[in-house]
Amino acid sequence: MIAAIIAAAGSGERFGAAIPKALIQLGDRTLIEHAVSAISSVADQIIVTAPSGYEKEIQTLVGDGITVVTGGATRSESVRIGLSKVSADAEYVLIHDAARALASPDLAKRVVAALKSGDVAVIPGLAQTDTVKIVDASGIVTSTPDRAAMRRVQTPQGFTYKLISQAHAQSGEATDDAALVESLGKPVRVIEGEERAIKITTPADMATALQFLGKSTNFKSGVGVDAHHFEAGRQLWLAGLLWPDQDGVEGHSDGDVAAHAICDALFAASGLGDLGSNFGTNKPEYKGASGTTLLKETLALVEKSGYAISHVSVQVIGNRPKIGSRRAEAIASLSTALGGAEVALLATTTDGMGLTGEGKGIAAIASALIYSK
Ligand code: CTP
Ligand code: MG
């Protein structure tokens, strides 16, 4: 029979989340659930080492058929605790990192096949593409080992139960289990690894992992347009700024066409209706609301629906005011209202044609790109 230990007791310090790394969600499942499915087709017994305090949560995620134990202070310690639970009749033991959540079941199968063909220790590895340097404590290179002979090794690593028990008997510390076997002078076979079996260490690795899942971040785009007629005697608000000595425009709110076009672009992208359905005349509380208030409210709705803003672009169409000299100020105002999102602001006239070209009002057209969080 084949036993498997999944090391999942780390805190994920380099990842920097509030929860242990094994509990982080990747696509539709947590890392620990992915790791279990990578080895469950070959293992008769599965033991998971959990961070102290998270045993129950992990047990619930992986189900009753799996043994969950509290891990140790180091990875090697955790593996030893797992080994102590391995059934006496196990022939082989696979040791896998929860952090290598996307290793495929095929990789585990190939490790087992190599064990069955007579190897006593089998580990997946990939060619080293970067040149590696050995440096001294002051950062001076002392040597350049031959890259061609190097392998970046992964898990699951497979061993005969007898050999891995012996290797861990001395309470040695190493960053992988094969190293302890090597120190016994036993042969460790490297088989072809998988790029998708990357060790998820930092948040940046999640983007790579999502690509392997075929779930690259879900982007949506939207377009919005707004136009208002000039109305003498009103203040002009545009792109989050007050433009003194300019006629304002008529409207239910402050008439900021740039802000309104952006709101509609965001509503279009997120499928949440439009400016009218969210803040229209049937919502008297928004009468006279500033453009920046509406941007803030729109952002809150977009975020509530599970999206974040990647980028917003808005073009003001009209003869006046001239945007150029206040562009940076306007971008800052719009961006602040949108929680710091990247904003582009452009302006154009229409060569004397159409309503805004005739000087009757101002229009704006915006586009927004949002992505699922
Ligand atoms: N691990 C473990 N017990 C420990 C430390 C680590 O079981 N005491 C596990 C981790 O949960 C992980 C694997 O060993 O699945 C590889 O470790 P690593 O990627 O370094 O994870 P963490 O130790 O959690 O991360 P960090 O080093 O950034 O804290
Ligand atoms: Mg670690």
UniProtKB/TrEMBL annotation:
Keywords: Isoprene biosynthesis, Lyase, Metal-binding, Multifunctional enzyme, Nucleotidyltransferase, Transferase
UniProt keyword Hydrolase, yes or no: no
Region described as 2-C-methyl-D-erythritol 4-phosphate cytidylyltransferase: spans on this chain: 1-219
The reaction(s) this protein catalyses: 2-C-methyl-D-erythritol 4-phosphate + CTP + H(+) = 4-CDP-2-C-methyl-D-erythritol + diphosphate; 4-CDP-2-C-methyl-D-erythritol 2-phosphate = 2-C-methyl-D-erythritol 2,4-cyclic diphosphate + CMP
InterPro entries listed in its UniProt record: IspD (IPR001228), IspD/F (IPR026596), IspD/TarI (IPR034683), IspD/TarI_cytidylyltransf_bact (IPR050088), ISPD_synthase_CS (IPR018294), MECDP_synthase (IPR003526), MECDP_synthase_CS (IPR020555), MECDP_synthase_sf (IPR036571)
UniProt-listed GO biological process terms: isopentenyl diphosphate biosynthetic process, methylerythritol 4-phosphate pathway; terpenoid biosynthetic process
Function description: Bifunctional enzyme that catalyzes the formation of 4-diphosphocytidyl-2-C-methyl-D-erythritol from CTP and 2-C-methyl-D-erythritol 4-phosphate (MEP) (IspD), and catalyzes the conversion of 4-diphosphocytidyl-2-C-methyl-D-erythritol 2-phosphate (CDP-ME2P) to 2-C-methyl-D-erythritol 2,4-cyclodiphosphate (ME-CPP) with a corresponding release of cytidine 5-monophosphate (CMP) (IspF).
Name listed for the protein in its UniProt record: Bifunctional enzyme IspD/IspF
Organism: Candidatus Planktophila lacus
Gene: ispDF
